[in-house]
Structure formats: C-alpha cells, structure tokens
Design goal:
The protein is of the alpha/beta class and about 240 residues long. It folds into two domains: about 80 residues, Nucleotidyltransferase, domain 5, CATH 3.30.420.40; about 110 residues, ATPase, nucleotide binding domain (Nucleotidyltransferase, domain 5), CATH 3.30.420. The protein has six helices and 13 strands. A six-stranded mixed β-sheet has the order 4-3-2-1-5-6, sandwiched between helices. Strand 2 and strand 3 form a beta hairpin. Helix 2 crosses helix 6. The longest helix is centred in the last third of the chain and has 27 residues. The protein starts with a strand and ends with a helix.
C-alpha cells in the first residue's frame, strides 16, 4: 500500500492507496510529533509520497515521524517547470507551493479544455490554465480564517463572534459588519474569478480546499473536487515509478 500526504503548516490530510484504489483517508496535525488519525492499526505501507508547503523545519519533523510507518524514506514532490503537456508560468519554479502544482496537474489530467483551480484553504489560491496546457498565472489571497485572525489580533476593540455566513447585506452590528464583510469580500473574488474565466476562455472552474463549499454557496459556478491535490500527487508518483 502507498500513503499519500498533503501537508500544510499545521494540518495535513492523508489517503491510503491499495492496488490503485483509495481505501482510507483521514487528517492529522503537523507538530513536534505527527499523528495520523485513522492509521493507528499501522497498515503495511510500502511507500510514502508527500506534497507540502510546510517550512523546512516542519518538513524534517514530518519526514522523521514517517520513518516509523514505512522502512523506505518518504518521497517529497515539488512544483515543476512542466509535465505531461502542462507548463508552469513561474520562472522560479521552486517558489511555487507544491500543492498548487499538484492541484493543477490533477485538474489537467481530466479537464484539458482550459480551467481555473480555486483552492480555498488557509490561503486562497487561484490558478488559470488554458486549453494548450499553459499556466497563465494566478493569485494568492488570505483565506477566511486568516482574515478572521487578523481582525481578532490586530483590531482589539472590534469584538465579534466569527460565523461562516453567506449574507452580504450591510451589517447592523459589529458582528454582522465583520461576518457579512468577509462574505462580501469573498463574493467579490468569486465574481472576479468567473469574469477572468470568461475573458480567458476557460471552460471549467474546479474548487478544492476546506472553504470550497462556502465559495460555491456565494455563487462560484464551479465543481467541487475535494481531493484535487491528491489526484495530481498520485498521478505524478505513478508516472515517476513507471520510468
């Protein structure tokens, strides 16, 4: 069996593949000790592949923790200049987060007619790819939780209970002003992504990440692909193994 991991700075997701099929999945915390919830029975894992945006110190902690799960060192995959007809717009490829590249590659394998990938996690990333496989660039924005933390930490006199509302009408209390304001900003981003997709001639919008459903609820006419990073990571690992 193979274990695939998508690791952020503090949280991670994992899935277990057996004979080409995902048999289990779960989450975990990336800290001094890594615990993968759902793998306490220690299944027979022959290889581990990782996509991560964590700091080098966190990455080393993760690699060390995975030694107990598999005798073979975990393989870390990063962004690339190109693969399978998909071409990266970055000149300094190493500066792109691995998860963005893997999500784009996962999308490219099944949507070769031009697409946008919106990954709504701690940060929101948007990437555009045309029908020829050329990455047209993208955007990185603060995600909902990041904006909430900013207001809580940097505006001490603004007291509010954070709620993931979809209401964008002008607020009539501080709580409404904040929560409706966050939805209002997200809605504006949704409208811009859809406008860009039309202008660039991109047929599909693929949405992934923890807040994907919220963006769809705010009007993003995209399809939900919760495991898009894994789709790309698994495909790349299989391609490299076949070489």
């Amino acid at each position: 069996m193979k274990l695939f991991i998508d690791a952020g700075n503090t949280r991670l997701k994992w899935c277990l593949e057996d004979s080409g099929k995902v048999t289990r999945s779960g989450a975990g915390v990336l800290g001094d000790q890594v615990h993968l919830e759902g793998l306490d029975d220690r299944p027979d894992i022959s290889a581990i592949a990782v996509s991560t945006v964590a700091s080098e110190a966190r990455r080393e902690q993760l690699a060390a923790s995975l030694v107990d799960l598999c005798p073979t060192p975990a393989r870390f995959y990063w962004a690339e200049a190109g693969r399978g007809g998909l071409r990266n717009a970055y000149q300094e490829v190493a500066r792109m987060g691995a998860d963005r590249w893997h999500a784009m590659y996962g999308a490219w394998l099944s949507h070769k007619n031009g697409f946008a990938v919106v990954d709504a996690g701690s940060a929101v990333t948007v990437d555009y790819v045309d029908a020829l496989g050329q990455h047209l660039g993208g955007y990185i924005l603060p995600g909902l939780r990041m904006m909430v933390r900013s207001l809580q930490n940097d505006a001490a006199r603004i007291w509010f209970d954070p709620e993931q509302v979809l209401e964008t009408a002008p607020g009539r209390s501080t709580g409404e002003c904040v929560n409706h304001g966050l939805a209002w900003l997200s809605e504006a981003m949704v409208e811009r992504v859809q406008s860009d997709a039309r202008t660039l001639g991109l047929r599909d919008i693929l949405v992934t990440g923890g807040d994907a459903g919220r963006l769809i609820g705010l009007g993003l006419t995209g399809t939900l692909h919760p495991d898009l990073v894994f789709a790309g990571l698994r495909a790349i690992d299989a391609e490299d193994a076949a070489e």
